[in-house]
Design brief:
This protein is an alpha/beta fold. The chain is built from ten helices and six strands. The two termini are about 25 Å apart.
Length: about 220
């Protein structure tokens, strides 16, 4: 079991990731959405690992890395981000991170990276196609989303909110089985494998009204 402090300013993503980590045997001690609170929790709780997003409302997460190392020497930091900056990984390692995982690599890559970092490795998981322009990625996402039905879009929006299956069923006025069918269809059309990945994909590409489509801040 790895004790983890999770810092990410997108609440729905952070809560969903915390649930996934717990399901895989890790213990999430705190979920923080502000940079200062991440540092405070690491200082107070001395977790084995800090999972740190790149961007917060008030600060670049990379600037926190030296302070995190100083306030808890036993804590290793793994940066997770959807930032398109190709120099971010090296910047993270230079500032003391033990690993860097781009969110497009998915949950499996992140879980594997956690195990490897805790085993003493330095881990970098980058997108397989850095050479694809951001505009092309956004266009591809919009093309995939165009195949979603109205109900599938509604379910996707509720996934971004962090709603559970029963909550989604109640709000849409349909059965739980119907919700599961719509969610699975949406995930298949978007080419993702988990609800967490679907929510992150939707936020990253602005597929849900009101979600942040800015990749730098996802």
């Amino acid at each position: 079991m790895t004790d983890i402090v999770l810092g990410d300013d997108h609440a729905a993503f952070a809560d969903a990731l915390a649930a996934v980590l717990t399901d895989h045997g890790h213990r999430v001690l705190a979920v923080e959405s502000a940079a200062a609170d991440v540092v405070s929790s690491v200082r107070t709780l001395s977790p084995d690992l800090c999972l740190l997003d790149r961007w917060f409302e008030d600060e670049d997460g990379l600037d926190l890395l030296p302070e995190l190392s100083a306030c808890s020497a036993c804590t290793r930091t793994l940066v997770i981000t959807a930032d398109p900056d190709r120099d971010a990984a090296q910047g993270a390692l230079d500032r003391g991170a033990r690993g860097f995982v781009h969110k497009t690599r998915g949950v499996s890559a992140l879980l594997g990276a956690i195990d490897r970092v805790m085993a003493g490795e330095t881990v970098v998981e980058l997108p397989p196609r850095w050479n694809v322009p951001r505009s092309s990625r956004a266009q591809q996402a919009q093309r995939l989303a165009a195949h979603l039905t109205l109900r599938e879009n509604e379910c996707l929006a509720l996934l971004v909110e962090g709603a559970s299956t029963p909550e989604m069923a109640a709000r849409l006025g349909v059965g739980v089985t119907t919700v599961r069918t719509h969610v699975q269809a949406a995930m298949s059309k978007l080419g993702v494998h988990t609800r967490l990945e679907a929510a992150a994909f939707a936020v990253r590409h602005g597929l849900v009204p009101g979600s942040r489509g800015d990749e730098r801040r996802a």
